[in-house]
Amino acid sequence: MVVDANVWVSAAIGSEATHEASARWIAQQVAQSGPFILPTLVLPEVGGAIARRTGQAERGDYWVARIAGLAGAEFVTLDVPLALRAATLATRLKLHGPDAVYVAIADMYRVPLLTWDRQIHDRASNAIAVMRP
Question: In the chain, what are the domains?
Answer without folding.
Answer: 2-131 (3.40.50.1010)
